[in-house]
Design goal:
The structure is a homodimer of 364-residue chains. Chain A has helices spanning 25-31, 48-62, 81-93, 108-120, 136-139, 177-194, 196-210, 214-234, 249-258, 266-283, 288-300, 313-321, 350-360; strands at residues 2-6, 13-18, 40-45, 67-72, 101-106, 126-131, 144-149, 152-159, 164-168, 326-327, 330-338, 341-348. Chain A is of the alpha/beta class and 364 residues long. Chain A has a seven-stranded mixed beta sheet with strand order 1-2-9-6-5-3-4, with helices on both faces. A three-stranded antiparallel beta sheet of chain A has the order 10-11-12. The complex binds nicotinamide-adenine-dinucleotide (NAD) (2 copies) and zinc ion (2 copies). Chains A, B: It catalyses: 7-phospho-2-dehydro-3-deoxy-D-arabino-heptonate = 3-dehydroquinate + phosphate.
Chain lengths: 364, 364
């Protein structure tokens, strides 16, 4: 079992990573002093619930906890204000009170949605993440929670730190291959922004990761979470440094939107976006290997590096204008200066970005 | 002009109270470093907007600010998730970015609603309160923002401190009489929980307050805000002390709900609730004058002290079960021990409260 701490003063919390952790969930809840009188509200999705919800519920109830559950349809469309409202209604009907906790059992969708319910319900109650995807090593750490609006992703949200993150590697075994690859994109991102040795390690162990080797996965998630933890501890509310976590995301979010949030996975979109950032980096003076290594590692992880040609460049550019990172007319871009190092560029011109979008359609 | 500061470390902010302040609003915005590039989003309601919105907009535009506006229907029903969503949509369409601010121009409804928009939009942008009711001296200070759910009031919300509170006493001149009285209920509350001399002062100046005498109003709002500021500074997130601000609110909120949020004003409901608390206080050992003074001062301010008989006691008790202050089976009540002093009682029995509800139907 690996453990690390997100250091945020009186909002600090641990991340537990290990195989078979769910068997001991009740004792972890005991350790964290969760209430046995107030109901716990587990939110999961239609793919994850049949696999793991009965076990989680059973273990908690055996430990003396009161559990109520809600299952939302799987997929990004559940990260909506309508679904949020529905969960608030269920929470009220179940009698959740200020000592209750909301527990997200699932990937980033369930984490962001349930987390926003926890942030908003009675202006904030306790929140626990049980991530079941690789991508969620990213989404479950850092306290960002949100739902989408038809006009923009993650636009309605809060900062609400969890009480703990509880990662049972065993749950990852049932992940569809495409989700595995997509999740690895954020792992690669954490290497690219912070840790050149970790990038080399991924380069060498991509096969094991794709094969869901428990030891390799545990290490990769531990390292990925550690990078995120280091960044978030220094800048909880994204005043500055935290923006580096957006490597590949300005283009990536635009691609997801223009592809109607169904054609491209989040990880696939940011994989393409990270290649775009690497191109921009090299244009601005980074060594050529930044582009080469970025592209190679992503491809080793089975990720796309080419922007689908049928996605309209004008629409992509337009989508970027709605992005939170579009500040007072300047585009803010995270640009690699070396492998493991990035800088925040606050005056990226739209023309330059447009040229890169065009170029990404020819990658391969 | 009176000024006081809400002391919350790096989230501290000033409250400005004076007549004719709106004329100088642009210079205050300059002082606070608001962006002239990013749009300001003024939210008002259908009663307030025709009276004051053109002036606010004009003064800000003359000062070089970009202004977009939204007007919601007046009344508590605008504090809904549907209205919240509509405002988020308008904010997106207007291109609000991370340097934008949301400005609430109106009473507590607009303050709570617009404040929650500011809290949620991009996970939180700047927020400014321009209260135009007496009650809003309470709602605009302390950072609580929220919308209602059909099953419970203020259940969906956040803590989001404003950047400043900007109180122009001139706006209060157009307040309907019933709103004046209702607002005074929170002024009285601030005296009752904290400051016996202030209660005496209200007792002696109720007539002037009801006549909207600017000097008396300015003093009363300054004192009321000061009490709230003192409490909130010591306990921003309602872990303990801040609960005393709920004097009269457990019963009050239940009454509002059972009266379908239309028969009773918030201030009227908590006026009745405060008499209920005084009865409980005397039963638990406070001097008889606690009941007498509480009742007299509220009546001098033109407020009701009798619970309308047709409101069903069972429904009132049921509504209290949904209240945020209902914690793990115990009812939390704020109970006066003297005029200007209260204590937090965490084990109030439902039977005792029921008896007081019945008794309140016979007050007068
Ligand atoms: N809050 C943050 O900081 C942050 C960071 C990155 C991404 N995100 C968000 O995360 C979301 C994407 O997360 P995701 O990729 O985990 O998506 P997801 O939650 O939709 O999960 C992907 C798919 O895998 C299924 N699934 C999950 N666990 C499974 C398992 N163990 N076995 C089988 N199937 C399983 C899900 O049902 C879903 O169909 C996006 O909404 C994104 O905005 C948030
Ligand atoms: N956030 C908090 O800490 C807090 C505290 C107390 C109350 N509240 C909330 O405040 C709300 C009640 O506030 P309120 O009493 O100000 O209600 P309100 O905003 O509905 O205003 C009352 C009425 O007066 C009208 N009005 C406002 N200003 C006017 C003016 N200057 N001239 C003429 N008409 C005017 C409004 O249109 C409305 O019809 C409730 O929703 C309550 O939950 C919040
Ligand atoms: Zn991401
Ligand atoms: Zn109140």
């Amino acid at each position: 079992m690996r453990e690390l701490t997100i250091d945020l003063g009186d909002r600090s919390y641990p991340i537990y990573i290990g195989e078979g952790l769910l068997d001991q969930i009740a004792s972890y809840f005991d350790k964290h002093g969760l209430s046995k009188k107030s109901p716990l509200f587990i939110v999961s999705d239609s793919n994850v619930a049949p696999r793991f919800l009965p076990k989680v519920q059973q273990k908690l109830e055996e430990g003396g906890y009161r559990v109520v559950t809600a299952v939302v349809p799987s997929g990004e469309s559940s990260k909506s204000l309508a679904q949020f409202e529905q969960l608030i209604t269920e929470a009220l009907q179940a009698g959740l009170d200020r000592n209750s906790a909301v527990i997200a059992l699932g990937g980033g969708v369930v984490g962001d949605l349930a987390g926003y319910v926890a942030a908003a319900y009675m202006r904030g109650i306790r929140f626990i993440q049980i991530p079941t995807t690789i991508l969620a090593h990213d989404s479950s750490v850092g306290g960002k929670v949100a739902v989408n609006h038809p006009l923009a992703k993650n636009i309605i949200g809060a900062f609400h730190q969890p009480e703990m993150v509880f990662y049972d590697l065993a749950t990852l075994q049932t992940l569809p291959e495409r989700e595995v690859k997509s999740g690895l994109a954020e792992v690669v991102k954490h290497g690219l922004i912070w840790d050149t040795e970790f990038v080399d390690w991924i380069d060498a162990h991509a096969d094991k990761l794709l094969a869901l080797d428990a030891e390799a996965l545990g290490y990769a998630l531990y390292k990925g979470c550690s990078v995120k933890a280091a960044v978030v501890s220094q800048d909880e509310r994204e005043n500055d440094l935290r923006a580096i976590l957006n490597l590949g995301h300005t283009i990536g979010h635009a691609l997801e939107a223009v592809a109607n949030y169904n054609e491209l996975q989040h990880g696939e979109a940011i994989s393409i976006g990270m290649v775009g950032s690497a191109i921009l980096g090299v244009e601005l003076g980074a060594p050529q290997e930044v582009y080469e290594v970025t592209k190679r590692v992503l491809q080793r992880c089975g990720l796309p590096v080419r922007l689908p040609e049928h996605l309209d460049t004008d629409e992509i550019m337009e989508a970027m204008m709605h992005d939170k990172k579009f500040k007072e007319g300047h585009m803010v871009y995270i640009i690699p200066t070396a492998i493991g190092k990035v800088e925040i560029n606050k005056a990226m011109s739209a023309e330059r970005v447009r040229a890169v979008v065009e170029q990404l359609k020819k990658e391969g």
